[in-house]
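USER: Write out one fold?

ASSISTANT:
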Amino acid sequence: MNLFNIRKTSLWLLILGISGFSLTSCNKEVRHDRSTGRTNEILIVTNSKAQWNGEIGFVISSFFEKPLAGLPQAEPIFKLFNIAEKDFNKIFKSQHNILIIDINDQFSEPLVETRKDFWSKPQRVIKITAPDTASFRKVFDEHSTAFLKAFNQLEIRRTNEQFAMARSVALINILYEKFGFSMQIPGGFVVAAQSDHFMWLRQSMHRVKQDVEMGIIIYEEPYSDTSVFAAEKILFTRDSLTSAFIPGPSEGSYMILSRDFIDPVFNRIDNFVTGFAVETRGLWMVEHDFMGGPFISYTFVDPQLERVITVDGYVYNPSGLKRNFIRQLEAILHTIDFRSKEN
């Protein structure tokens, strides 16, 4: 089945409004080989290279290559690479994120179709068929946020499938005993500090030029009302705990928020694993020292509505890029599970 020849009689589900991504099966096309491709990368398939070098490529790259919020230097949300339809062979069909653009004048209106695990696993394939460039641009602008969400969810799923093979069962159980939920924490993390309602996990990775550190912070407090989700309340709580429990390398130094370069960015997340959460992205620094980097956190209420919980991940990589590390932490934070501990 050639995706560039799919018509209305195909088994693909037409997504009207892109409100959901459930699909019928097409067993002859499904492959269960492990998907390929670099982290945070999307393959864009166009009818020709000329399309990619023109307006269509500009529209797509302007959206997906926007800087990821909360990083100290500009790094794109996704890295894109393009091939023409004639080169879209079996090798490229194993990519984990694929966006196909088919400008086809046999259609009177644009169609949007999507597949999960179509040629490989895990995989997300999205196809836009449009009669002309103008109608493509209209449908892309209408649904681009849903496309981004779908590709982001695939990245989270793919990362956590990789981490699951090397998770720290002991640390996961420690977390469950303390807070009543688990997270799929990879091996290499250790408990650096904890109190009654706070825990700091850290992992150091040795590099030739500069060691990299990733950290996870978990803290809780009684739930009172929705004021716990106010931006300044979230920031104040983080600062008060990190300044008390996360020391820097020099005497008298400690972690705090940094607002010198960018202000924290807040987003309402309705599809977090616990339901509603507030996502915060921003920068941290070490008071009285010269360390800093990005962080991401999720603040939510537990299923019994008794506690407000924040799970927070930070990165320290002063001489290198941070996007992939912060995206790894984002994936880990999405594995919260209140059901049971690991065996």
The CA atoms of residues 64 and 78 lie 6 Å apart. The domain at 3-163 is CATH 3.30.379 (Chitobiase; domain 2).
